[in-house]
Sequence to fold (331 residues):
Amino acid sequence: MALTERIQKNIDVGYWTGEIPLQYIYTYGRAGEKFFRSIKDKGVFIGARCDTCDITYVPPHIYCEQCFERLEDKYVEVSSAGEVYTYTFLLKNMDGSLKEKPAILAVINLEGTDGGVVHLLGECDPQDVFFGMNVEAVLKPQDQREGSINDILYFKPC
Amino acid sequence: MLDANAIEKTVTKVSFKDIEQRRVLSINYTPNLQYAWDNGLAIGRYLAELKRGRIIGKKCRSCKRVLVPPRLFCETCWRPTDEWAYVQDTGTILTYVVSHVNWDASRVKPNERYHTPAVIELDGTGKDQGILHLIDEIEPYDIKIGMRVQAVWRPLEERIGTITDIKYFKVIK
Fold:
């Protein structure tokens, strides 16, 4: 049962435009708050350590995923250096236009931990990136940090 | 069993002030949610005809109704609709409401008129279907179900092909 009419000329197609007003505030939660507060105030990364399972979570969790033990008193300082676990190149901006220079997005596994952060790589060219490359975090000057993931400017090879 | 005290201990109370004064860190974000909605064939013709000062519907030969706004498919007979048909800009109030509340949920001020949206059964469409529009030129609480109304159109040069090309419906004798 087909419809009996169709638009023959595309200039006949009308449309309505609009905008959906939406705004959100995301709080990081208890462990996330510790993580970002520590970067903001001290420039130090922290994780949560479960000794039973021998896992160090970065970013920290308040529970161990494996044994459900509470980890809120088990925060530990971790290194701000690690290695590239995986990476990709961003060629386009959010609006679809081409970037002047590709950005390198990577998952960085911090040294001695089982977790990682997703962030940009800087001070290196796309062709030089490889899995397992040693990198370290470059932070904003302390007075410019505001407690977000952007307090880390990027990770650079070391 | 859920223990209220145990749950209470795991809850972190955060007020909006805590977030504002950045005692609690957060990300504030406004996504850019623009959209373009395709009118399609039926609504496209409907809006184009409104710009010309006419109301058009689409007839279903099975249930004898003229669907306004027009649809290409009759939802009661489950079949494609048939020919286009103009309907009158006069009709009958099927139901209405007197709203003391504005679109943004604020109260209508004492010197302003209450909003009176109504479902209007247009002449020539068939029973028990109507379009939603505003009633005006009458005291809100004088409106009655069954009153006869007529569309008050914007001047031709102000019409842009929207349902608001009809300003409102006024009560006629």
About this structure: Chain A has one helix and ten strands. Chain A has a mean pLDDT of 90. Chain A has one domain: 23-157. The radius of gyration of chain A is 22 Å.
